[in-house]
From TrEMBL:
One of the record's GO cellular component terms: plasma membrane
Name listed for the protein in its UniProt record: Myeloid-associated differentiation marker
Protein source organism: Cricetulus griseus (Chinese hamster)
Keywords from the UniProt entry: Membrane, Repeat, Transmembrane, Transmembrane helix
GO terms under biological process: negative regulation of heterotypic cell-cell adhesion
MARVEL domain location: 27-159, 164-316
Length: 319
């Protein structure tokens, strides 16, 4: 049965598991309200524990601290809006904003729960600071599960009329932009792609697809889909198809020019001089970066293919 998806100007049909009583403290006693309280407490404990012992120096620690503070702040805003019944006055589409944020927050906390302990905590000396960092990592995992649960509770069900970001293609777009951001982090060294047109094309592919998907998300959050010169369903299908074609070129060119000796690539990790000496705990050698980008390119290609397939199953209605 197809999922009925509105343009973002239509009232959302919610499920009983995600319904709350807005404009009243009773909203906090509902399942979704209690879940958001858990998110708030978990992220608060995570950044408080790390801040109290100053265990967040370096890029990895900074990312983890940003993640927990950002998720705490936005979750607090969402709770205030729902407690005050201010959804109609919120500048963004309330049918799309909470689930979009919950999906990003789940991915952010997941990344911090993996990156922070593996690149930072394990290199800390045993003691109070390390214990606090471990506790912070534990609560980061709890927050990740809480945000993922919210996504599972509030996503669109077959036959529902809901905002686009609550559908599978909408959630896939959040995932696609997140993966693209990780790719950008790995290719932050221009040395990895400069002076090779094929690799520069791959970087252009990552940037173009990221921008197009980000624009789509912003159009939905701002209730601006009716400003497009073409119908929104046509725009989505065209975007998914173009992204699949572009990523199909990148999944061939990036590994070919990075790992094939015929194109001055490095087929083995040992052949990369940057991986033959001991690195600082927070660094990633160039060969590992190349491999990570190749894997993430494949993951994002699969996401775009799924996006294209699921987009054809959506039914857009106007009311």
């Amino acid at each position: 049965m197809p999922v009925s998806v509105t343009r973002t100007t239509i009232t959302t049909t919610t499920t009983s598991s995600s319904s709350t009583i807005v404009g009243s403290p009773r909203a906090l006693t509902q399942p979704l309200g209690l879940l958001r309280l858990l998110q708030l407490i978990s992220t608060c404990v995570a950044f408080s524990m790390v801040a109290s012992v100053n265990a967040w120096t370096g890029p990895m620690g900074n990312w983890a601290m940003f993640t927990w503070c950002f998720c705490f702040a936005v979750t607090l805003v969402i709770l205030i809006v729902e407690l005050g019944g201010l959804q109609a006055r919120f500048p963004l589409s309330w049918r799309n904003f909470p689930i979009t944020f919950a999906c990003y927050a789940a991915l952010f906390c997941l990344s911090s729960s993996i990156i922070y302990p593996t690149t930072y905590v394990q290199f800390m000396a045993h003691g109070r600071s390390r214990d606090y960092a471990i506790v912070a990592t534990t609560f980061s995992c709890v927050a990740c599960l809480a945000y993922a649960t919210e996504v599972a509770w509030t996503r669109a069900r077959p036959g529902e009329i809901t905002g686009y970001m609550a559908t599978v293609p909408g959630l896939l777009k959040v995932f696609e932009t997140f993966v693209a951001c990780i790719i950008f982090a790995f290719i932050s060294e221009p040395f990895l792609y400069q002076h090779k047109p094929a690799l520069e094309w791959c970087v252009a592919v990552y940037a173009i697809c990221f921008i197009m998907v980000a624009v789509t998300i912003l159009l939905n959050l701002g209730d601006c889909t009716n400003m497009l010169p073409i119908p929104f369903p046509t725009f989505l299908s065209g975007l998914a198809l173009v992204s699949v074609l572009l990523y199909a070129t990148a999944i061939v060119l990036w590994p070919l020019y990075q790992f094939d000796q015929r194109y001055n690539g490095y087929p083995r990790r040992a052949s990369d001089a940057s991986c033959t000496y001991t690195h600082t705990p927070h660094s990633v050698c160039f060969w590992d970066r190349r491999l990570a980008v190749a894997i993430l390119t494949g993951i994002n290609l699969l996401a775009y293919v799924s996006d294209l397939v699921y987009s054809t199953r959506l039914v857009f209605v106007k009311v």
